[in-house]
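Hi R.,

Here's the chain you asked about this morning:
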Amino acid sequence: MSETSVWITSQSGCIYERFWNGVQWVVAPHDLPISEGHAASIFIVNHTILALSESGYLYQMQLNEISQPIWLEFVPTLFQTTDTEIESSRVLIKAGVVSHDGERVYFCTRSGTLLELAEIEPTRWVNHGQPPGADVAAVADAGTIRKEVVYTISSIGNLYEYDRNSKPLWKKHIWKEGAAKDASLEPLKGAALHGLIRDHSISLFLLTKDGILVERRLNQRKWKWLVHGSPKNQHLSSITHAQHEDSNEKFFSLFFTTSSGSVFEYRIPKRAGNSQENQMAETWVNHMHPPHAKAARGIGGLQFQVGRIVFPLDDGRLAELHISGIGGDNVGPINSANVRRKSTMKYVWSVLDAPETEGWNAEYCTEERGPTNCIMGIRDEPNDLGTARLATRRRKGSQQDYLIPSVVASNGPANALDKYRFADNWIERNFRLRVMQGGRSFFLITDGGFTFEYLYTEHTWIWLRHDYPAAIKGAVGNYNGSLYVIDTAGSLLIRERSGNQLAWINCTAFKKGGQVTGGPPWDGIPGRALKVTPEDALFFVSKNGRLLQFTVALRKFKWKDCQNPPNTRVACIIDQELFRENIVFVVGTNGRLYQYNKVTDLWHEHYQSQHLILSRLPGTAMRPSSMSLTGSLFMLSEDGGLVEYHWNSLDGWNWVEHGAPHKGVTLVGSPGPSFEGNQLFLISSDGNVYLRYVDQTAWKWKNCGFPYIKNMNDDQRQEKVRQKWIQDFCVDEDFSTNYKESEHVDDLSGNCDPKIASIRPIPFSEDSVIFELRDGRLGELKRVDSTQWIWSRTIGTPTSLCMENYWTALAS
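And the predicted structure, written out as tokens:
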């Protein structure tokens, strides 16, 4: 739009704007309505903003009655050359190009015709049809060579010229036989230059389908083709023309992205007449790509200021290629008079962050979220819990956070990393419990492979048994009221209600289905509504260590193999899209942290000290507010200490090692669940539950013990211990008073052990957590104040030998 405003259509189909508010670059969302689908491209013509959806429909941005921007459908109304309006079926648009003067837009339709939006107010459309015996697959140039003359490329790669003032209207530019090995052009926008050979010469640069640069040149009223080739072993995929501030520059510059993700500059010397020639040879300059990121293939860049070009990256972010010292993420528009580009000036890369819709960390500039001073231009200082906590975090300097796994040196060969072996009961320990309906229903998978549901119905808690022919090992997901479990063979099964009956569905039997060993640790964050989208999917880990995506939205079940990081296999999922939209965090069998981007299908490894090895256990995401991207991932280290991976907008990513509550104990089992963005539950090796919470700005430990202590022979000693227990631990007064009345406290058979088992607990509601005890019973920990938790009850289970009364029924 201008030097201070760049509009981007992202890989996820969102639209956002980067604009300079006088102090910093900020990001504002401009998405199409959800019902209209994803955006494919954006056009700014004559101060009007148009968006094209992936479905082929156009939308215009307008202001509503309260001056808020909204998108309204902009339907092409076709006219004949006689200006007589005709009725037409709905026109679907494929792509478009804004004319050189910015007054018109030329579209190619999905039916292969050329369509012109000649005027906005009043709206005037012109249908130019298509070349005889051919179609319009792309607009190569719109009015740069000559006003109102359009150059198009057909789907088979021929170049056509459309001139409404000539006869015939369409002319085909043909190659001489044998002029090029493959003269088929790629349907892409080209780059037009004036005065390359002489003052009135015209050149149109295009790419062939083989990635070769060719030129269609008009000089002294004669057209001819020239082949410029390509850098050695490179396949060119897009063209970007970079304009120079100084008209006396001795060469033109064209920038190209390649199929390998690099950016090349092609410097072409100017020749002003016959007497004066620049002796500089045509040169290819390799600008490569930013560290640990590559340029997107087939998408050109955008020069928004002289010496500054923005390219989309294949990982969803942007990168600015700029002359050293005059660009970058923290530099606004500069006075063009200060830019005098010379061949000795060095270009450098600066990576620009993208919004969460792309799986990245740029915060939107809205009233509800992100910087509050978007328009005023006052620099933001993050004011959140995470900032205060970062005072004790270890800095890592300018270390890259996101690394491409294939270029990272691993701790050894991949087959050596895969020697890690999981415990036989790994699935049972981490996926024994699963919430179905908060506060009313959860599932328990027993050691014997039975599936039980603990259900509150008609004012009574009962156990409901769900029989399946094979033994079940774990419950690995819950979506839209359906439970996802895996059996001993690794098959993924759905337990769902079909009409008045309950049914089992074998998902592994679907096309491309696989055997799985684990899934996402959590189905949501307690107290936060889930966002439902048409792309909803669950992720699982396959038996051979690959990440599998299973689409579940609208019951359009579909498997996708997301593979694994190149230098390791996937051990378990740390978090699926709770911390970052479209991002799945995993731990590899090598004990290192990776992420998979659902939008780009790319893997990244996160920077991690070589001395920090993570346990192969699920983790927990903690995000204090959905309005901010600040938050943490919590995991355990291999030696049983708590590890936090924290992000905020001021410092980016940082590792923090919290360790253990005290010497002599280690943390066992998966960390979590978390509450309120500042409380995390953990299980220790001595059978106690610990709460890690924030008191003002400091992290603290609190021992919540276990539901009750063993019965004492001496009543006085018992009361003394009980009172101390109440003071030091999280205990309900009524519960602790009645613990000695329990018929099981006096159980001398040794079947009752109230300490906490290293089974991953579940958040039963916004203020309740369910733990499994070592004797097979369950204990419920409830919150009575902000950070005050008490043991409220124990729950007898069908398989515990330390029996309590329960009701059971068979589900049908």
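The chain is about 5% helix and 40% strand.

Let me know if you need anything else.
M.
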